[in-house]
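[INFO] parsing input record for Reverse transcriptase Ty1/copia-type domain-containing protein
[DEBUG] input buffer:
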Amino acid sequence: MRLGTVRSLISIAASEKMHLMQFDVSTALLYSDLGEAIYMCQPEGHNDSKNNVCNLKKSLYGLKQAPRLWKKCLGKFMLDLVFQISKASIIIYSTGRRLKATCSSICMPHLPN
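[DEBUG] output buffer:
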């Protein structure tokens, strides 16, 4: 998330007397479904045979597509909750109501190019 985006959110929250909260999804990158077949060697100590591999069904830390898949998974969840993506930043979601605004900013890990 850009520093300017954070400053804007804090400024809006202060001027509108909104509450700021912070949450951390500690295993965020493990929730996303993979859209492709990815195989890996079995972890050490779990080998039945040297030729066995695992077919991943969910994302893992260390996969280059993991942050992007998490953003997609989270975005679908937020849109299902009737949030809208901000025009200012793709990591800011809001309900779009003017009087009682609910805004959610999502700080993502670095997305590789």
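[INFO] The longest strand covers residues 33-41.
[INFO] shutting down worker
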